[in-house]
Amino acid sequence: MRTLDEIRNQLDQATERRSELWHLLSDGHDPALSDELHELEDRIATLWDEQRMLKAQQRFGDRDAIIKRARHEERLARAA
What we know:
- Helix content is 88%, strand content 0%.
- It has 80 residues and is mainly α.
């Protein structure tokens, strides 16, 4: 898994490229640039998701452990 700094750097690069693409597309429609922009938007969304997941994992711990604990607490609440 990548570090937050690596993800942030990739996000910065991707958002800069996105700005360039929007600027180029403002001059006129280009199917290749449009396709690249759509792929880049998907990449940015994936990077944001990865960053949120890594931050949550650092803050709260492993996702599987959290779910296991929540299910256990839910069973205890239902039993009570």
